[in-house]
Write a structure and sequence with these properties.
single chain, Rossmann fold, alpha/beta, five-stranded parallel sheet, elongated
């Protein structure tokens, strides 16, 4: 069976150096991008209802670029000037780099993990008695609050945005050989948009354990998965699978 068309349930990468661009050219594929979910920001009134006062927190824990955007959006809307002394704890280098959109990097105290909250434990311990704010969406991986509690931090969650299912009705009669998912919300969006979806010959690719579990719970057949030993990225998993089928 020839596999030629792929739909990736995320926005198209901004860089021409994307690994998907490379396999698209190498394997002569048609790759389309379409976010199955998107985020919408909450307003200042919703934040106040959570009894959040930004002035109470010396430290901000940032797990994603969305968290960065909506934290600074709401501090601006609520006319709160974030002190220069605020410390930022970023889950990854990508998040820390994105923070430069809002702060002068070299003049701020920024601590960076390696995509895992546990990487920051040693740094957290240096400021254990201080207050931490965790900006999130309505969906939060349980491992993050569990880790923060295990570190015995004085922290509070602030829901600043929410995950919303995108309208995919224009794709109803469009067929792809492979559908690629990166979150349980993407799987949920598929069935919210197409309750009568039948997998048939469509290949399902999933990234991450929680996405895999969501696909299995939806009775989907998983053909491609990552990360796994030797295949740390979805692009590598796709390339290996498609090449083997040629």
């Amino acid at each position: 069976m020839s596999l030629k068309t792929i739909l990736i349930s995320q926005p198209e990468p901004a860089s021409d150096k994307s690994p998907y661009k490379r396999i698209q050219e190498k394997l002569k594929l048609k790759i389309d991008y379409r976010p199955f979910i998107h985020v919408e920001g909450l307003d200042a009134k919703s934040v106040r209802k959570q009894k959040i006062d930004f002035a109470d927190f010396d430290n901000i824990i940032l797990t994603s670029r969305n968290a960065v955007d909506h934290f600074f959006r709401l501090t601006s809307e609520m006319r709160f000037k974030v002190p220069d002394s605020t410390k930022y704890f970023c889950l990854s280098e990508a998040v820390a780099y994105y923070l430069q959109k809002y702060v002068v990097y070299r003049k701020r105290k920024i601590y960076v993990g390696d995509k895992n909250i546990d990487d920051l434990e040693e740094v957290f311990n240096k400021f254990g008695s201080e207050k931490y704010l965790l900006p999130t969406s309505d969906i939060l991986k349980p491992s993050i609050p569990e880790a923060l509690n295990s570190f015995k931090l004085n922290w509070k969650r602030a829901q600043l945005y929410k995950t919303v299912i995108s309208d995919l009705s224009d794709l109803r009669n469009v067929y792809y050989d492979i559908l690629v998912f990166f979150s349980p919300s993407g799987i949920n969006s598929l069935f919210k948009n197409f309750p009568d979806f039948k997998q048939n010959d469509t290949k399902i690719a999933v990234y991450g354990i929680t996405t895999q579990e969501a696909a299995e719970n939806a009775n989907l057949r998983i053909d491609i998965s990552a990360p796994k030993p030797g295949l740390p990225s979805m692009s590598m998993a796709l390339e290996k699978y498609i090449t083997a089928k040629k």
